[in-house]
Automatic annotation (TrEMBL):
<keyword id="KW-1133">Transmembrane helix</keyword>
<feature type="transmembrane region" description="Helical">
    <location>
        <begin position="335"/>
        <end position="354"/>
    </location>
</feature>
<keyword id="KW-0812">Transmembrane</keyword>
<feature type="transmembrane region" description="Helical">
    <location>
        <begin position="49"/>
        <end position="70"/>
    </location>
</feature>
<keyword id="KW-0813">Transport</keyword>
<keyword id="KW-0472">Membrane</keyword>
<protein>
    <recommendedName>
        <fullName>Phosphate transporter</fullName>
    </recommendedName>
</protein>
<keyword id="KW-0175">Coiled coil</keyword>
<feature type="transmembrane region" description="Helical">
    <location>
        <begin position="124"/>
        <end position="144"/>
    </location>
</feature>
<feature type="transmembrane region" description="Helical">
    <location>
        <begin position="224"/>
        <end position="242"/>
    </location>
</feature>
<comment type="similarity">
    <text>Belongs to the inorganic phosphate transporter (PiT) (TC 2.A.20) family.</text>
</comment>
<feature type="transmembrane region" description="Helical">
    <location>
        <begin position="82"/>
        <end position="104"/>
    </location>
</feature>
<feature type="transmembrane region" description="Helical">
    <location>
        <begin position="374"/>
        <end position="393"/>
    </location>
</feature>
<dbReference type="Pfam" id="PF01384">
    <property type="entry name" value="PHO4"/>
</dbReference>
<dbReference type="GO" id="GO:0005315">
    <property type="term" value="F:phosphate transmembrane transporter activity"/>
</dbReference>
<dbReference type="GO" id="GO:0035435">
    <property type="term" value="P:phosphate ion transmembrane transport"/>
</dbReference>
<dbReference type="InterPro" id="IPR001204">
    <property type="entry name" value="Phos_transporter"/>
</dbReference>
Length: 544
């Protein structure tokens, strides 16, 4: 199976602190959050609740960094365009920048329509629901990261809010239409991402990789592909990454993105025309042309992710902060800078400490990636969000990215079947099995012949032993003769190996099953945890 481990990914442990060191750094961050929250809440009622909420928010932010950010940089690392350390630095900087510059400026957890705020009896119940949701979402993300499963942090916090709401006021509190749309995204996101990524990979293969003169084809087509990425990412950032700074309608964002892409196309065309003069006519040369765009895509995806998903960590925390400060909930309320800092720093720290595991999973353990395939995945992520926004479909950035990885892997399998390589390899494999069996039988023959010689004079030896050895020798000679004439009987294990080769499985099926299972149970798992935590918190807080 063609699954290489990229050197940078294999050296992940060199960039990770020891287990004890990581825990100490994480604890220092939580202690810092706790200290600042205690200073901020000095002299106010329910000070302890705000401190606890800040701790949960910091814990949630670290888990978002450990799990979700890997989807933005994993393909770039797996393809070799970025080193692991470089990816962590870029992602940490741009995640924090996205959160602080373009992060949500108002609390939106309740306004998302997951639960009905009219059924929340009082501020105290609201605070308990948000605390339970934060802790449940964070713990589920922690478990998923430990299992090596990239899951949606949005779905984790949504499941937490849902579970806490059900525990507080029953199933009638949940907006099941909204939850149905979220469940639909489990299918929509990876399928759209996979189809778009596979589609672009097929186009690049057909127009460039499969051409006899790859360099000439690259000069013609690669500038167009990179300009398309620029167009998609510019539109994506305007629609998603900067939506909290300025509201731009999707059609206008697409037009602006086009005018940004035009000068990039002109520059890239000139650059590739010069660079192509020194490039050999091989696939690796084409790969090199996509390295810089991949680095930019990782940075821009991280910026947009920080701008949007920081609310998953600090939205409930900001809601609790506002409820404690004003005594009200469910209304639009500004997110304090200190709350946004908790989210931004927590995501960056979580990525640096625990992100490499998921970066490795997404980048190299599902299927083998190179720069061209990783480029298609990054491009699919931006386009899928734009298409989904136009159609009003709910999508998950995590599911899109992972779906793109699976999409390019399955396309490669399909193309290999079309080229009929498997049949050729099957004959080679059968021949190898045949030669191995002949060698095995010859060793047996030599062993029996040595045993017969060791008996000495056959007339003096035990006649039954002599007869048995002679029969075995004659039988081995017949077997070897039949094998040399092509008469071969394969064992079940050998047949299974040939069958697997014929399928050309370039995607790890075990990873596919594990990830899909984790996606399906994210919302209910977080919901069950949140319900449990809600009852625990209520039991602690209610007077005995």
């Amino acid at each position: 199976m063609e699954l290489k481990h990229i050197p940078e990914v294999k050296r992940a442990r060199k960039f990770e602190a020891s287990d004890a060191g990581r825990i100490i750094i994480a604890l220092l961050f939580i202690i810092g959050v706790m200290w600042y929250a205690s200073m901020h809440a000095s002299g106010i009622e329910h000070r302890t609740l705000l401190i606890v909420a800040a701790i949960f928010g910091g814990y949630m932010a670290m888990n978002i960094g450990a799990n979700d950010v890997a989807n933005n940089v994993g393909p770039a690392v797996g393809s070799g365009a970025l080193s692991l350390m470089g990816a962590i630095i870029i992602a940490a900087i741009f995640e924090a920048a996205g959160a602080l510059i373009a992060g949500a400026d108002v609390v939106g957890t309740i306004r998302k329509g997951i639960i009905d705020p009219n059924l929340i009896a009082n501020t105290q119940m609201f605070i308990w629901i948000m605390l339970a949701a934060l802790l449940a979402g964070a713990i589920w993300l922690n478990l998923a990261t430990a299992m090596g499963a990239p899951v949606s942090t949005t779905h984790s916090i949504v499941g937490g809010v849902m579970g806490g709401g059900i525990a507080a006021a029953g199933f009638g509190m949940v907006n099941w239409v909204t939850m149905g749309k979220i469940a639909a995204s489990w299918v929509i996101s990876p399928v759209l991402g996979g189809l778009i990524a596979a589609g672009f990979l097929y186009i690049i293969k057909k127009n460039v990789i499969f051409q006899e003169d790859k360099i000439a084809a690259a000069k013609k087509w690669v500038p167009l592909y990179i300009a398309t990425m620029s167009w998609a990412f510019a539109s994506y950032l305007i629609v998603k990454g900067l939506k909290h700074i300025v509201k731009v309608p999707l059609p206008l964002a697409v037009v602006i993105g086009f005018f940004i892409a035009v000068p990039i196309f002109m520059f890239v065309r000139s650059y590739i025309a010069k660079k192509a003069q020194t490039l050999p006519n091989e696939r690796e040369s084409i790969n090199q042309l996509f390295t810089i765009p991949l680095i930019f895509s990782a940075a821009l995806l991280s910026f947009a992710h920080g701008a949007n998903d920081v609310a998953n960590a600090v939205g409930p925390l900001a809601g609790i902060n506002d409820a404690i400060m004003s005594g009200e909930f469910g209304k639009k309320a500004p997110i304090p800078l200190w709350v946004m800092m908790v989210g931004a720093l927590g995501i960056s720290i979580g990525l640096a400490l625990y992100g490499p595991k998921l970066i490795k999973k997404v980048g190299s353990e599902i299927t083998e990636l190179d720069q061209i395939r990783a480029f298609c995945i990054a491009l699919a992520a931006a386009i899928t969000v734009i298409v989904a926004s136009a159609l009003g479909l709910p999508v998950s950035s995590t599911h899109i990215a992972v779906g793109g990885v699976f999409g390019v892997g399955f396309l490669r399998e399909y193309l290999m079947r079309l080229e009929d390589r498997a049949k050729k390899e099957e004959k080679v494999l059968e021949k190898e099995f045949q030669e191995a069996k002949i060698e095995e039988e010859r060793k047996k023959l030599e062993e029996y012949e040595r045993a017969l010689e060791a008996l000495g004079d056959p007339k003096k030896a035990d006649p039954f032993i002599v007869k048995a050895l002679i029969e075995k020798i004659n039988r081995e000679k017949e077997v070897i003769a039949s094998l040399e004439h092509g008469e071969i009987k394969l064992t079940k294990i050998e047949k299974k190996a040939i069958k697997a080769l014929k399928k050309y499985e370039l995607v790890q099926r075990s990873a596919l099953k594990m990830i899909v299972a984790a996606w399906i149970i994210t919302v209910p798992a977080a919901g069950v945890l949140a319900a449990m935590f809600y009852f625990m918190i209520r039991g602690i807080m209610l007077p005995g």
